[in-house]
Amino acid sequence: MVVRTSRRRRLKGSSLMDKVSSSATEAVADIPDGASLAVGGFGLSGVPEALIRALHEQGATALEVVSNNCGVDGRGLGVLLAAGRIARVTGSYVGENKEFARQYLSGELEVELVPQGTLAERLRAGGAGIPAFYTPAGVGTQVAHGGLPWRYAPDGSVAVASPPKETRDFHGRPHVLEHGITTDFALVRAWRGDRHGNLVFRRAAANFNPLAAMAGRVTVAEVEELVEPGELRPDEIHLPGVFVQRVVELTSHQAADKYIEKRTVRA
Predict the structure, then answer these.
(1) Per its UniProt record, what InterPro entries does this chain match (predicted)?
(2) Which stretches of the chain drop beneath a pLDDT of 50?
(3) Which of 169, 180, 188, 234 could form a disulfide with 126 if both were Cys (CB 3.0 to 4.6 A apart)?
């Protein structure tokens, strides 16, 4: 009798930990206008395409996005950008997207450029509860001195510029103060995941995904393969489920939809 009661409690506890959403549509339904989003991916590798497209259909606007880049025309975050749903971007690379350049230079989009390693650490720090840190990256440049155009006016003048940042010497070397990043939501993509939100990323798709997941107050992960709790070995889990609140299992078609940004072949 004791064994049966114990098993029943374990099963009940497991069901309470089940974080699987029925669809990407359901998983992003409560993202409001003006929400901040940390989004995984590098170029088009490891981008949560299904969640981004579901958010596009959902209609949320005036979004503030933190991501390494903003996709390309018609793919990744480029889908939201082209629809005019993004108001502000914090990122480190803005190439390969003509619509991004147009919106930025015309004053429709606010852009905060951050050195790539600094952006990664700002996300990690935010997820770890670290409010700020010092780094030598950006010392002696506009990153530290301020003046980087965040938003242009329609006439081409700078409407909003980055402020100067605090600097301090450590062991005779100057460092600039950077702040950790947390966002309302995070959208990420993983190779495998279980119902408790534990995630495994595959190869290059690891990129910014674990860091973005850590930074989000509510993190939604789309996974190519959903497994039961216990099937993932503890030593292979890249991100523990404590950082993930919702999991969406992709269809076979969605899992196979991996667009190659630049294909190169030998002569």
Answers:
(1) 3-oxoacid_CoA-transf_A (IPR012792), CoA_trans_fam_I (IPR004165), CoA_transf_BS (IPR004163), NagB/RpiA_transferase-like (IPR037171)
(2) 1-13
(3) 180
